Amino acid sequence: MVQKLVTVALVGACLAIAACNTVRGAATDVGSAANCTENAMHGGRC
To answer: Cβ(22)–Cβ(14) under 8 Å?
Structure first.
């Protein structure tokens, strides 16, 4: 019983860590697109 509980806890922790990395990467992509759009509006390049 304890082994199953530890396994579930480890899998949950791994999924949480993976989700954090995914959200951080998505935020970086959105920020990059916003910077590119702002540069283009001011006559610059991406």
So the answer is: no
Cα–Cα distances (Å) from 32 to 15, 19, 26, 37, in that order, read 26, 20, 10, 9
What is the C-alpha to C-alpha distance for residues 34 and 46, in angstroms, rounded to an integer?
Answer: 10
Query: Confidence class of residue 7 from pLDDT cuts 50, 70 and 90?
Result: very high
Taking the alpha carbons at both ends of the chain, their separation in whole angstroms is 55
pLDDT at residue number 25: 80
Does residue 39 contact residue 45 with C-beta atoms inside 8 Å?
Answer: yes
